């Protein structure tokens, strides 16, 4: 039985960008839509008309108009969007140049720093001039090994204004993790800070940067932002220069925005790399821009008066998504540090202080806040807050209920899901629609997302593979160093011809709501019945005795048995009574097939740096297979806790 948690008021619906867009489409095409589902169905049957409307509604600036919205639409890989158009990504993000606040940076334990749109434009102009003077051209790669600070979007915008391609990874990556990424794309310039703060500790970055540039000879210049100290020693980093010394000194510069094709590369993003060398996914400027405008304006209801925050590092696609909010003229809040510093309410204090209206985070964070006993709604003034966004993993029913019980009753809780692969979402929020516990409200407009059964047929109200059966603008334009496109095809199109298979296990209901059960490659298959890992996590992690958990399938006796690893809460004794409680909770709320054959205590659960559980790596460990790329993990040492577990030998 679906549980309704929230519906927008009539006033809220009337004021929503989505409502304005429906009226715009009705007028432009002579239609009579009155709700989201009508709009969605049209958007995936008249794709070209939808994206043309979004181009106009989003106010995309182009020096040359497009000749065709899409060519070769029936060929997912071969289709081309907005052919003939010429534009610049950074120019579209810098369309506002007034004294409204553009960026607020709050570093852990540091005072906030602010930048208006006029100041942002000036800073980008000066840095772009410096990059041009050192010879950076369109197509060159510029990389960031940076905290989530003001200088990072400035560097990205300066690079992309020239037509250079931006790529970044988080400063908590080890040398090998950085080399696995930047070593493939061979950047010309590297931006870094001298260090960063996390959980009350100061961490140095320059020693790792020195190791990186020894191995990547293409890097001609390292630009260092002083952060953890005012005058860092750059002696160990050849070719390094302080940011202030690199920045052009002139005031009042105009940016020379390079006018480039719609599909000119803007970002290089990386797969997690847990199963080998990370794939380098190249995203086009126009596709990224129009998709982000759609998601921010329509699905998130972002407006100029909003302050939007997403807890993210610069190595996660949510950073790229957040920065596109500049194109809407909103205020972006950048935070770098631990989400639990100085305490579990730290980010909610920030929400109060900076009057955040759209608060983005992860399912893991919301569950941790609840476990920590924080009650943000009663402990902080969250009056401006109108939306909470969650991604990274499926948001449990219990976390949905926690948000409405302990954060705020009147807000749009949008669980969103997509990926680095598309630098955007397949399913996300609908500000004019209801929120049901455990459900993503809708599929993205223009995204023909379906659930395929085992026979490759679309199904409703039953679990299946998440697929997208029609082309969309934010597909990668190609993979780096993949001249014949074989890596690209193998990643998404090797199961269903001409259909994007994303690798999530989902269910779509009659209303268009989506439930995600976890990664399909991590799906459990005891007795031939497919079970999503999220179904088990929901039951286990609701128990106060359990801090975290991870479930995998172990090949055993010509079948697969379910193995559950649990991290007990501090002070909790792991014993048979707890095992029985765990199994009972799973059995009573799911099916007997979900009940694990083994429940094993562990001291830690391994995660990627972007906060995703690594079920595949643990599955490899328990089957004595090698895990090839541990640098993609936030805590790689945790994997050894799973090796040679006695309970798995019988």
Overview of the structural elements:
- The chain is α/β, with parallel strands linked by helices and 650 residues long.
- It has a domain at 525-648: ANL, C-terminal domain (GMP Synthetase, Chain A, domain 3).
- Strands 7-6-19-18-20-21-22 form a seven-stranded mixed β-sheet, sandwiched between helices. A five-stranded parallel β-sheet has the order 9-8-10-13-14, with helices on both faces.
- α12 (317-323) links the parallel β18 (307-310) and β19 (331-336).
- α2 (17-29) packs across α4 (47-57), α6 packs across α7 and α8 (175-185) crosses α9 (206-215).
- The two termini are 39 Å apart.
- The relative contact order is 0.10.
Distance between the termini: 39 Å
Structural class: alpha/beta
Radius of gyration: 24 Å
Mean pLDDT: 94
Shape: globular
Main sheet strand line-up:
7-6-19-18-20-21-22
Biggest sheet details: 7 strands, mixed
CATH superfamily of the domain at 525-648: ANL, C-terminal domain
CATH class term of the domain at 525-648: Alpha Beta
The amount of helix comes to 25-40%
CATH hierarchy: architecture of the domain at 525-648: 2-Layer Sandwich
Number of helices: 20
CATH topology of the domain at 525-648: GMP Synthetase, Chain A, domain 3
Spans with pLDDT under 50 lasting ≥5 residues? none
Beta-strand share of residues:
15-25%
The count of β-strands is 34
Précis, in short:
The protein is an alpha/beta fold and 650 residues long.
How does the SSE layout of this entry go?
Layout: E1 4-6, H1 10-15, H2 17-29, H3 36-43, H4 47-57, E2 62-64, E3 68-71, E4 80-83, E5 86-87, H5 89-93, E6 101-107, E7 113-116, H6 117-133, E8 141-145, H7 151-162, E9 165-168, H8 175-185, E10 189-193, E11 195-198, E12 201-204, H9 206-215, E13 221-225, E14 240-242, H10 243-246, E15 260-261, E16 265-270, E17 280-284, H11 285-299, E18 307-310, H12 317-323, E19 331-336, H13 346-354, E20 358-362, H14 363-371, H15 376-379, E21 387-391, H16 397-407, E22 412-415, E23 417-419, E24 424-428, E25 435-436, E26 442-443, E27 449-452, E28 464-468, E29 478-479, H17 486-492, E30 500-508, E31 514-519, H18 533-540, E32 546-556, E33 559-568, H19 576-589, E34 598-601, H20 615-622
Parallel strand pairs: 6-19, 8-9, 8-10, 10-13, 13-14, 18-19, 18-20, 20-21, 21-22, 33-34
Antiparallel strand pairs: 1-25, 2-5, 3-4, 5-15, 6-7, 11-12, 16-17, 17-29, 23-24, 24-26, 27-28, 28-30, 30-31, 32-33
